[in-house]
Amino acid sequence: MGASRFAAIVLPTLLSTTGCSGVQSALDPAGENASRLSDLLWIMAIGAAAIWLAVVGLAIYAGRADPRPHDRRLGRRLIVFGGAAFPVVTLTILLAYGLWLMPDLRAAGDGLRITVTGEQFWWRVQYFPVGADRPIESANEIRLPAGERVEFVLKSRDVIHAFWIPALGGKIDMIPGRTNRLVLEAEEPGIYRGACTEFCGLSHALMAFFVVVMPPEEFSRWLGHEAADAVAADSRGREVFLANGCGACHRIRGTKADGRIGPDLTHFGSRHSLGAGILEQSPHNIARWVAETERIKPGVRMPAFDMLGESDYLALAAYLEALR
Ligand code: CUA
After folding, report:
1. What local confidence, expressed as pLDDT, does residue 65 receive?
2. Ligand 1: which atom is nearest the Cα of residue 174?
3. How far is the CA of 155 from the centre of ligand 1 (A)?
4. Is the pLDDT of residue 10 over 50?
5. Predicted model pTM
6. Which of ligand 1's atoms lies nearest the C-alpha of 200?
7. Is-contact 154 171, C-beta < 8 A?
8. Which atom of ligand 1 is nearest to the CA of 161?
9. Is 323 helix (H, G, I), strand (E, B) or coil?
10. Residue bearing the bigger pLDDT, 7 or 69
11. Distance from C-alpha of 67 to C-alpha of 313, rounded to nearest angstrom
12. Whose alpha carbon is nearest atom 1 of ligand 1?
């Protein structure tokens, strides 16, 4: 391979690895489990690269070697050591290292538990702090205290989804009729992104969420606030919301809206995204979402409310955005 061809192939590869940093990358770990998985990946990758180089080296040697018969003893030794002993030892070490990691990754703490239920195409999120008898319900965004082990209880109501926050740790399927568990510990406060990683229907690729990791005291304050009723005062937007039947599917605690089919909107305005991770939170996008739901997220169960007047959209968006 000429130098220029080498540069053309290898350089973009190296440069593209800089794209592996960021809010949704398993190669940029921000959690205990993710760091261990990332170490495991690198060790496996380096092991695989070493084996590959050895095999390719042998192949090149075989191609160029003197074609006359080799010494039989040397040949047999190569087969026994290179073909049997070396792979058995290497693979056993890698397997043992992988298995040794597992119990630690699964050990739950005795703190916060969060139930996340996959829906088409959004996430129902319920916080169970220690000693709580009722969950604190939210949707499409998960907040976590930094430095604490949190147990995720993962379910699905309709089809198989999969729950993955690459920067924080491994993923796991959400299967109807079954409960899976995942323990994660976020190390650094920050905002990360998670996604559904199992094809679940038309808008599978539009089923994401943000994860906000906060210092523990700040998280407790936030959770206390999240448990409380909605804060927005009476307004025209609230009337539009209730008059158009939005409350049949959505709940806003502290108002008559008590639907359980769709996302709980009690503190909707404080979330970083809407439509489950696909639109930035803003009054303009809220109005768009309400009017063009199906166009933004094909297959969504929420019907588009395209019959409202301009001022109704604005009032509704302002009301929802104020639900912090
Ligand atoms: Cu939910 Cu893919």
Report:
1. 77
2. 1
3. 12
4. no
5. 0.81
6. 2
7. no
8. 1
9. coil
10. 69
11. 81
12. 161
How large is the average pLDDT for residues 268-295? Answer: 92
Report the nearest atom of ligand 1 relative to the CA of 207: 1
Question: What confidence category does residue 297 fall into, taking pLDDT thresholds of 50, 70 and 90?
Answer: very high
Helix (H) or strand (E) holding 150: strand 149-156
Is the distance from CB of 193 to CB of 164 less than 8 angstroms? no
Single out the residue of 303, 277, 301, 300 nearest to residue 290, CA to CA. 303
Output the CA 319–ligand 1 centroid distance in Å: 29
283: left (phi over 0), alpha (psi -120 to 50) or beta: alpha
Statement: residue 285 has pLDDT above 80: yes
**Side chain identity at 299, as an amino acid letter?**
G
Q: Report the pLDDT value the prediction gives residue 20, as an integer from 0 to 100.
A: 56
Structural element, H or E, at residue 183: strand 180-185
Q: How far apart are CA 232 and CA 210, in angstroms?
A: 23
Does 16 have pLDDT greater than 50? no
CA 277 to ligand 1 centroid distance, Å:
12
Binding-site residues, ligand 1, Cβ < 6 A: 118, 121, 161, 196, 198-200, 204, 207
